[in-house]
Write a structure and sequence with these properties.
Radius of gyration: 21 Å
Helix content: 40-55%
Number of domains: 2
Strand order of the largest sheet: 1-2-4-6-8-11
Strand content: 5-15%
Shape: flat
Number of strands: 11
Structural class: alpha/beta
Distance between the termini: 38 Å
Length: 288
């Protein structure tokens, strides 16, 4: 996340030992009031002017941020200071926070597309566009699982690779959710034959729609000898459901170019496409 690049690097260097001490000391059995007080102090320190305190708070947040997120979001909605609002937004973006409202909105958009599409090809194009945009806007620092409060939506997003890293796989399994989605992590910039690989996506459900979209392959750069690297291949997508499933491979990365020489693009990941299309509209009518 661009807004936290400098803070992220400083925190990792200066606050590692502090984070370790905080994690060991964390009392998982603390009551709600105690936890909220701790979270509020964490946020106060994080937004303060003292750089050292902010860095320490940020490292701690990385280790327990997922449970602090609702309080961060509430603080952002209540503060009238635009600078603090932006800081909290940057933090939530870095953690990969997705609100319950966003999860339900995603379900509504996808179900509407399926319901209104005349062919599976039309639905494929629009669903991939929605999910690629969603993934571009939500890329957590670690592979994460999200579940709506009503239990009807489950989504797993694989961590994107940094430069020289591979994207992580995403496996989403829930037998009762109406919508189960897996998004493979995107490959980082490819600087060797072993880097830039995208994450595989696997989604499974028995009582809803399963969607899997493999990660995009990393774009090529130059390796240690200066040779141009081609783009990495897209990740495989595999979704399974007795109702309907959508399995999409990720796009390949773009090859590096220099002086008019262009390395090859990565190939598209495998995916068996749409299955159960003939069932899906009747099923959508039943769950309304």
């Amino acid at each position: 996340m661009q807004g936290l690049t400098g803070l992220k690097a400083t925190a990792l260097i200066c606050g590692l030992m502090v984070a370790a001490l905080f994690v060991v000391a964390e009392n998982k059995g603390a009551n709600t009031a105690s936890f909220q007080s701790e979270a509020q102090n964490l946020i106060k320190n994080l937004l303060g002017d003292d750089v050292k305190t902010s860095n320490e708070a940020f490292v701690l947040l990385k280790n327990k941020g997922i449970t602090v997120e609702p309080i961060l979001a509430k603080t952002m909605s209540e503060t009238e200071d635009p600078d603090k609002q932006q800081k909290i937004k940057n933090i939530l973006d870095y953690l990969g926070y997705i609100s319950d409202k966003e999860l339900n909105q995603l379900k509504l958009e996808i179900f509407n597309v399926i319901n209104q599409s005349k062919t599976p090809e039309d639905a494929t194009m629009l669903i991939k566009r929605i999910l690629n945009t969603f993934h571009d806007n939500h890329h957590p620092f670690a592979t994460r699982t999200y579940r709506s409060q009503d239990g009807k939506v489950l989504i797993v997003i694989g961590r994107n690779g940094e430069t020289g890293e591979n994207g992580q796989d995403a496996q989403a399994i829930d037998m009762k959710s109406q919508l189960v989605i897996a998004l493979g992590g995107m490959g980082g910039v490819r600087i060797s034959n072993e880097s830039g690989r995208s994450g595989r996506a696997d989604a499974y459900t028995e009582q809803g729609i399963a969607i899997a979209l493999g990660g995009r392959g990393g774009n090529g750069a130059t390796d240690g000898s200066g040779a141009l690297m081609g783009g990495a291949g897209g990740g495989q997508g595999n979704a399974e459901s007795p109702i309907a499933s959508f399995s999409f491979g990720g796009e390949g990365g773009k090859g590096a170019s220099s002086g008019g020489v262009v390395a090859g693009n990565g190939g598209k990941g495998g995916g068996k496409g749409v299955q159960g299309w003939e069932n899906v509209n009747d099923w959508l009518k039943k769950i309304k």
